[in-house]
Write a structure and sequence with these properties.
With 253 residues, the chain is of the alpha/beta class. The protein has two domains: 38 residues, no CATH class; 196 residues, P-loop containing nucleotide triphosphate hydrolases (Rossmann fold, 3-Layer(aba) Sandwich), CATH 3.40.50.300. The protein has a five-stranded parallel sheet with strand order 2-3-1-4-5, with helices on both faces. Helix 4 crosses helix 11, helix 5 runs antiparallel to helix 6 and helix 7 packs antiparallel against helix 8. The structure holds adenosine-5'-diphosphate and magnesium ion. The site of magnesium ion has 3 residues, from helix 4.
Length: 253
């Protein structure tokens, strides 16, 4: 009301407002067209905001349900209209798969512990450079099964190395490709073992003390980095709901 009157008065012979003081509606229309509505600053030329992809990592011990939940989360993000790339670390590229095969072979202790560590890092360097970075540059979302937190937990804390030193190596391997969000799936060691009963892998081989150290490391990393920890007990659907809540609460656009 008041504004209409002010314009009416101007219309009746008041001096034109200086160019910086355009009527509010006109200014807003122009700002919207020029992209200022999103950025809060006014620009002369129109520009398009590049959609930004997000990089989400699901990590945690074997049997926690990462692979199951990566699939559910990717499907749910796709239903929301996002383009989603699923990745697995190590893996996802020809070189990554080759490294994975060497690692699986080496589980009998035939490769030296440091070789194992550096192979995981090499696979990560390949994955971030060849899969994750290009996907994010396209504006896609990436949901990744394991990433550096696994190396810090398994090859770091649980293997008796200094986790901070392993973390520095991980930073180098990531090549600047950092997750926007890490969700840790947490499950008591015994429950994880029950889920994995049919699979002969490193869980059974390394023993419960190693697995407890792995779990402690994931939880310590989560505390230090303020990553959400999701309880991984319950049905896959229930866990999926918790994962979605954790993601939604932290990645709202
Ligand atoms: N919420 C769940 N409850 C019971 N079993 C599960 C659940 N999520 C996954 N599983 C089963 O447990 C095993 C390990 O799940 P998986 O998703 O492969 O875990 P991870 O990738 O963390 O090792 C699989 O056999 C899977 O079918
Ligand atoms: Mg898995």
């Amino acid at each position: 009301m008041k504004r209409e009157r002010a314009y009416a008065i101007r219309g009746q012979g008041w001096p034109r407002p200086p160019s910086g003081a355009r009527p509010r509606e006109e200014r807003l229309r122009r700002d919207e067209r020029d992209g200022a509505a999103e950025t809060g600053c006014r620009r002369r030329r129109p520009f398009k905001l590049k959609p930004r992809g997000r990089f989400i990592v699901l990590d945690g011990p074997d049997g926690a349900g990462k692979t199951t939940q990566v699939a559910l989360l990717a499907a749910s993000l796709r239903r929301a209209g996002l383009r989603v790339v699923r990745a697995k670390d190590p893996g996802a590229t020809p070189a990554g798969r080759a490294i994975r095969r060497i690692l699986l072979h080496g589980r009998d202790g035939s490769i030296a512990p440091d070789t194992e560590l550096f192979l995981y890092l090499a696979a990560r360097a390949e994955l971030s450079a060849r899969v994750i970075a290009p996907a994010l540059a396209r504006g896609d979302w990436v949901v990744c099964d394991r990433y550096s937190p696994s190396t810090v937990a398994y090859q770091g804390a649980a293997a008796g190395r200094n986790p901070a030193a392993v973390e520095r190596l991980c930073r180098a391997a990531e090549g600047g490709v950092r997750p926007d969000l890490v969700v840790i799936l947490d499950l008591p060691v015994e429950a994880g073992l029950r889920r994995m009963r049919r699979r002969l892998d490193r869980m059974e081989r390394k023993g419960a003390a190693f697995l407890r150290a792995v779990r402690r490391s994931f939880l310590a990393q989560a505390r230090r980095n303020r990553w959400p920890v999701v309880r991984a007990d319950g049905t896959p659907k229930e866990v999926g709901q918790r994962v979605r809540t954790a993601v939604r609460g932290r990645l709202d656009r």
